[in-house]
Amino acid sequence: MLKTKTQILNVSSVNAINGDYKSQINVNLPDQNYADPNIKAVYISVLHAEVPNSFYIVNYTNNQLVINGITYVLQRGNYSATSFITYLLTILPAGFAITYSTTTNKYTITFSSNFTINANSSDSTINSVMGLGSSSLTSVANTLTLPNCVNFLPLSRLIFRAPLNLRNFNQADKSGDIILSLQNNAAQMGIINFSNSMNTRFLISDRSITGFVLSLTNEIGQLINMNGVDWFLTFQIDIDYLDNSIDTTFRNLIQQYSNNI
What we know:
By secondary structure, this protein is mainly beta.
């Protein structure tokens, strides 16, 4: 008879392996005998998750601006379109001025002489936040309106990754290790809640596995810096197994006796 055993596994970033970033943990599976021949299938699912929205808009992945070949390292934190201007002018040379248009959602930058924003430099990582695009930008008559809208929204979604060969796919970085794509539906410093209402689960094909590293990343696989704040997640593991024990219920005993007459 085929039966199913269900296990609940609570994990959290309390014992993260990357310090205060708290975006990588070791997960040890509770039943390490998945290779038993009586086990027919093992499934894993994320039952629910609670993730604080504690990561910054400007963070270690996007906090550099390059102007006239000089790299400016920006203070990590949460900004609005206007508060970012106030901060940026404190680190740029005197003579710079920045305005923000609420109509176009774009910045216009002026300086006492013509200047170049080296947005095509590998050191320029603030591009998508400021609306720089990916090409080098040079002012005309000391003025430059940036080509794209600014973006001071937090990450739209977070990705939990587990190397379990689950055959899921992420187009942005061509990865296949997604176990949960988490929609960011919380306000800044709020809690992102997830509940598996669709009962989605995935087959574990490697029966020899005893554990794995669970990572919390952005769209392109960069680890998220949670700034020392813990998140929590609950796995459900379903084990389909063949029960070869003798059925000794009264009804089956009678049936067995009748068959032997």
